[in-house]
Each structure stands twice: as C-alpha cells, then as structure tokens.
Amino acid sequence: MEKKKINIGLIGGGFMGRTHSNGYNRIRNFFPDLAYTPVLKAVCFRNESKLKAFAEQWGYESTETDWRKLIERDDIDAVDICTPNDTHAEIAIAAAKAGKMILCEKPLARNLPESKEMVDAIAAAGVKNTVWYNYRRIPAVTLAKNIVASGKLGRIYHYRANFLQDWTINEKLPQGGEGLWRMDAAVAGSGVVGDLLSHCIDTAIWLNGGIQEVSAMTETFVKQRMHQLTGKVEDVHIDDACSFFCRFNNGSLGLFESTRYARGHKALYTFEINGANGSLRWDLHDLNRLEYFDNGDESNLRGWRSIHVTDGEQPYMNKWWVPGLGIGYEHSFVHQVADFLKSLETGEDCGPTFQDAYETQKVCQAVLDSAASRSWKSC
Ligand SMILES: NC(=O)c1ccc[n+]([C@@H]2O[C@H](COP(=O)([O-])OP(=O)(O)OC[C@H]3O[C@@H](n4cnc5c(N)ncnc54)[C@H](O)[C@@H]3O)[C@@H](O)[C@H]2O)c1
C-alpha cells in the first residue's frame, strides 16, 4: 500500500527532540499498517554545529536555525515543538496561522493567558493538534484507563499522585540558560507545578475526570541562585516543591505532591485510585506493571495482583515482542506518534488536544494561585 506522507518539522533537539525523533523512526517498523508515514523533513535549533550532527544521527533531510523559516516552508505539514516553555505559544500560534498541524510539548505554555491564545489560534485555524502528555500511552497506564472506564472500580473515592526528583538540592546549582531553563521562572513559567505536576494532573483528569477546586502550598527552598546568562546572583521564582488537595467533579478527593528535593528519587511518578469495588496503582519505576485490587475476588484469594502488562491483548503490546517481555519509557512517544497518525485516518482527535492541555493548565494556575493566596481556588 502506498503510504501518505506527513512531513515533520521538529523544533528543538534536546531531550524531547530525541524522544520524538526516535518515535517517528520506529513507526515504519512497528506500526506498518498505518496509512500515514512520517518523513523527517527538517530539524531546527540554533546551535549550528550540533544541528548537523543531530540531523545526521536521527535522519532529518534538512536543517534550519530559525523556527520561522521552518514554519514558512511549503514542504512542512506538521510542526513538532520541543523547545523550552517560553517559546511554545509564539511558535504554535505562528504554525497554526500557517495552517500546519501541531504537536506541542507540555506544559502547553508558561501560564493560562498564553495557553488561551494558543487554544484560540488552533480553533481559528482548525488544524490537527496534540500535546505530548506521553504517560497516557504507557500500556499499563492505558490499561488503568480502560479498567476505570469499564466501571470495575465502582464509585471513586480517592486519587493520589506523586512526582518526586532530587536534582536541584545542591544550592550551588545555577539557574537559567541552556540545560537549566527549568530553574528560571521567566522561561519555565513555574517550577514543579508546570514541569511535573502537569503530568500528574493530565493523567488524573484522563482517568478520573475534571478537577473542581484545589488547596495548595508551594515552597522555594533555595531563594537565590547564580543566573547562568547574567552571571549575577538572582532571586529564584520557581516553586521547588508543591503539595495540593483537590476535589474532583465526581466527588472524589485528590492528593498530589511534587518536589525536586526528595533525596534519592530521580523520577518517581506514582498514582493510585481507590474505588468502592477496587483500586489501581502504578509506578513509573516499574512501568510495565499495574497493580489491581478487586474486592469481587473470592475472599480467601483476595489481594493486590501485579499485572505484567506485556500481553498482546493489552494496550499497544501486540505491536512489540512476545508476552512477558517489557518495553520502556521511549515507547510512550512511539505510541503517541502512532495514535496521531491514526487520527489522521479516522478524523478523530488525538488526545490530549490543546483544549485538553488547557484544562490541565487551568488546574496548574489554580494550584499556583491557591498557594500564593493561601486559600481554596476553583479551577
Ligand atoms: N513529555 C515529557 O515527559 C517531557 C519531558 C521533558 C521535557 N518536556 C518538555 O519538552 C520541552 C523541551 O524540554 P527538553 O527537556 O527537551 O529541553 P532541552 O533543554 O533538552 O532542549 C531544548 C531544545 O530547544 C532548543 N531551543 C531553545 N530555544 C529555541 C528557539 N528559540 N528556537 C529553536 N530551538 C530552540 C535548544 O537548542 C534545545 O535543542 C519543554 O517544554 C519541556 O517541558 C516534556
């Protein structure tokens, strides 16, 4: 079958530039039935010496150093935004006006007003879009979604999630600039709220529905750090840690915690959901497993079962190896590319869309506002 080509223009060649490029490259081999195929047409970032090497390593046909030039090109169908958060809005709005499909990294933007402009631009242009909240597409997490959607858990009472890291504990770590833009609120928008909790919130809304109101606290443990770009010691404006309670629209209660000061934890994303008839829990460090407690089990056999999500009947797994053999973090991006291409065939949305990511951004904003005002905020 002759495949329809989608020419990709990737902007940003750091961590996410690599995961997305790997995603595009795996499609031909592992999702051969898709009608559309991605073509790595161009990659763009500013460091010219690294750019050529990146293009060669991942198979891009051409390079650009200015994202505006990439968007102007007639041979680009889809723009993939893998740059720091302060650039998402400008690039996405320009790409929408140019009629390009857009795949944008999370969080959608630095703040709610920027996100709103992006959602409006997308709606006006009517272009296909998706946001890379990739954890939805880890098979065990997708299985959790299917179990919740089947109603097996019954009425949901509780949802809790953590995203813990420890890489900013060193007080001498500078802020800002290449590699450390996450520490600079002017670029990142916020600290752990936008960077880490946004993932937890996206998954939570997807599994358990919308969030009504939040009560949050944040802390900036190290108040001043040297700024890499100015060379001066400057105030730190990001949240180093955040905890919040919330109430979901379905009446269940939520508890979320994130920090970059949990010594020993590198990327511990966990969630648990408790319903009247059962519970689920998942841990990124053991990502092929989903733990499930079913209160309907025979009483003398009842207990938490650890489901190794590697069977061909489980989400995405018929595309990979044989039952019993696991897959990794990078596969979530392959799955998102595959689902995006499939959505071009079906005409359906490829969630999370910009609109979905805007809902997450609303919760992030309410969390930050709640912490600042020391009061409950509606989302
Ligand atoms: N989905 C996830 O799990 C996940 C994980 C990490 C990062 N992210 C998101 O991905 C985005 C990028 O993060 P990263 O970790 O890849 O960052 P990074 O620092 O590793 O890479 C950023 C890249 O963008 C380029 N860049 C910066 N400004 C540019 C500009 N004006 N024009 C062109 N290129 C420019 C840099 O040269 C670099 O190649 C962020 O929005 C981040 O929040 C998402």
Describe the structure.
A hairpin with a 2-residue loop joins β13 (268-275) and β14. It is built from ten helices and 17 strands. By secondary structure, the chain is α/β, with parallel strands linked by helices. It has helices at residues 15-30, 48-58, 67-72, 88-97, 112-125, 139-150, 185-188, 192-208, 330-346, 354-373, and strands at 4-11, 36-44, 62-64, 78-81, 101-104, 129-131, 156-164, 211-219, 224-226, 233-235, 241-248, 253-259, 268-275, 278-283, 289-294, 304-308, 377-378. Helix content is 34%, strand content 26%. The N and C termini lie far apart (47 Å). α8 (192-208) crosses α10. It has a nine-stranded mixed β-sheet with strand order 16-15-14-13-7-12-11-8-17. Strands 3-2-1-4-5-6 form a six-stranded parallel β-sheet, with helices on both faces. Nicotinamide-adenine-dinucleotide binds next to α1. The site of nicotinamide-adenine-dinucleotide has 23 residues, from α1.
Concise overview:
With 379 residues, the chain is α/β, with parallel strands linked by helices. It is built from ten helices and 17 strands. The mean pLDDT is 98.
